[in-house]
């Protein structure tokens, strides 16, 4: 005889009570292991356990960020640029095009020399040899596409839509080939956030890539800062990882693309020197000398290769290049920028006999005097943190006190500020500095009649303010 239990019918009220009870106790719901799910569903079931990796989200986010930056660049590309429709000299856009014209049509020995075919008063080449080689390469491509873009003399002031598109693309490509990868490698791979990251790497990457300064100067005003700044970033990444030979070569390339990389030269020199002095010093003297000598030979060799076409022309050719690269005769500052010399120009004008030599001496003294407090600790204790701090402080000293400062040179201070964003004690200060530095370049927007940049500035400022407000940062003594 078997006994059967009769199941009582469940009313709707009981069902509702059961659902409410389950919802109130979410701990009752337990996720089964994938193996148990597969066992219960059966091996032939169409439902299979799914795998998920956080790198999928990161890759998608980086791609989205790249798309946003490209959209900004395209929008800026259709706005005004430096000197548009303003003959006879036009502006930086025409300067970059003219260098393509000169380098592709004239022999190397005439690139930096005044002549009937190369009027130095009309945007004469005034950047180091690597810029000249880059201009030659772009001129070669331009001639293959449309020779009228680089015709000697006849192409001056050309402003066709097709040529404008070509020039815009030549500025966008280096951003993604050199600058963008360096930023990604630093923030996603290299930057040390400690055991307890205080902010998302992706958020810092976004804040850096969308920095409106470099977007405006390269894609609206028109220059190729992403090349020299990208090379500097790659140099820093290699040096921080003790790849001194590769880092030294990359910095020499950056310096020979734009001489303004001198802003970063002192801390890089001190860091390499200090890190290659083996301790204890006297016991490892020979090893230290050998290590430093090897780096020195690599640096000299890189300089020789880049300058060889001019070196073989004789000392007069080298002198001509150096005079073009360092145009001291232009004065202490240019236009209205936030430098010491500009701020106190009303005082300087009243100093008797404050001529070129005294100006150079005063500028050099102030730059070195303000740089030494950062360089000495770096030499005594060459840590990565001290390296970043010294690079920022020295670059700022150059911007404030060096010779012939332009608004755009604040970019050379902004890049070291990016490197300090992962420091909790300095994070908020760097965000504020980058916002102010981007705003300081708005005067160029007025000159270029580029009002759309105001939107970029506003968006960047709001994003920076949001980062400062919603990120909790502990005070670090």
Automatic annotation (TrEMBL):
Under Gene Ontology molecular function, one entry of this record is: dolichyl pyrophosphate Man9GlcNAc2 alpha-1,3-glucosyltransferase activity
Keyword Transmembrane on entry: yes
- How the protein sits in the membrane? Multi-pass membrane protein
Xref: InterPro entries: Glyco_trans_ALG6/ALG8
The record's EC number reads: 2.4.1.-
Entry keyword annotation includes Glycosyltransferase: yes
Instruction: Report the sequence similarity comment from the record.
Output: Belongs to the ALG6/ALG8 glucosyltransferase family.
Q: What name has this protein been given in UniProt?
A: Alpha-1,3-glucosyltransferase
């Amino acid at each position: 005889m078997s006994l059967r239990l009769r199941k009582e019918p469940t009313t709707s009220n009981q069902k509702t009570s059961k659902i409410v009870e389950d919802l109130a106790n979410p701990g009752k719901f337990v996720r089964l292991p994938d193996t148990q799910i597969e066992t219960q569903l059966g091996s032939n079931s169409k439902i299979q356990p799914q795998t998920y990796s956080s790198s999928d989200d990161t890759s998608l986010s980086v791609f989205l960020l790249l798309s946003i930056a490209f959209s900004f660049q395209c929008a800026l590309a259709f706005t005004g640029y430096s000197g548009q429709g303003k003959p006879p000299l036009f502006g930086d856009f025409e300067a970059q095009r003219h260098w393509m014209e000169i380098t592709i049509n004239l022999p190397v020995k005439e690139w930096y020399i005044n002549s009937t075919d190369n009027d130095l008063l009309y945007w004469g080449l005034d950047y180091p040899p690597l810029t000249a080689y880059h201009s030659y390469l772009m001129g070669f491509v331009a001639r293959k596409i449309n020779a009228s873009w680089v015709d000697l003399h006849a192409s001056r002031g050309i402003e066709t839509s097709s040529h404008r598109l070509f020039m815009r693309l030549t500025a966008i490509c280096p951003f993604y080939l050199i600058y963008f990868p360096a930023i990604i490698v630093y923030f996603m791979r290299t930057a040390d956030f400690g055991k307890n990251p205080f902010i998302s790497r992706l958020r810092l990457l976004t804040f850096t890539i969308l920095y409106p300064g470099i977007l405006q100067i390269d894609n609206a005003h028109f220059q190729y800062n992403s090349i020299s700044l990208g090379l500097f970033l790659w140099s820093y990444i290699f040096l921080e990882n003790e790849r001194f030979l590769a880092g030294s070569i990359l910095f020499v390339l950056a310096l020979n693309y734009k001489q303004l990389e001198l802003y970063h030269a002192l801390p890089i020199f001190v860091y390499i020197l200090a890190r290659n002095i083996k301790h204890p010093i006297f016991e490892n003297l020979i090893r230290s000398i050998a290590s430093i000598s090897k780096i020195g030979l690599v640096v000299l060799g890189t300089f020789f290769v880049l300058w060889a076409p001019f070196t073989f022309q004789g000392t007069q050719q080298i002198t001509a290049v150096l005079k073009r690269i360092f145009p001291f005769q232009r004065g202490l500052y240019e236009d209205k920028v936030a430098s010491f010399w500009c701020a106190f120009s009303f005082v300087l004008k009243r100093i008797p006999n404050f001529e070129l030599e005294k100006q150079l001496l005063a500028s050099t003294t102030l730059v070195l005097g303000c740089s030494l407090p950062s360089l000495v600790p770096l030499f005594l204790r060459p840590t990565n943190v001290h390296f970043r701090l010294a690079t920022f402080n020295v670059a700022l000293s150059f911007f404030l006190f060096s010779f012939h400062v332009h608004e755009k040179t604040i970019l050379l201070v902004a890049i070291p500020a990016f490197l300090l964003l992962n420091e909790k004690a300095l994070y908020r200060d760097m965000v504020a500095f980058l916002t102010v530095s981007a705003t300081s370049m708005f005067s160029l927007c007025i000159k270029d009649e580029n009002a759309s940049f105001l939107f970029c500035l506003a968006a960047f400022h709001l994003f920076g303010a949001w980062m400062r407000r919603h990120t909790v940062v502990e005070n670090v003594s």
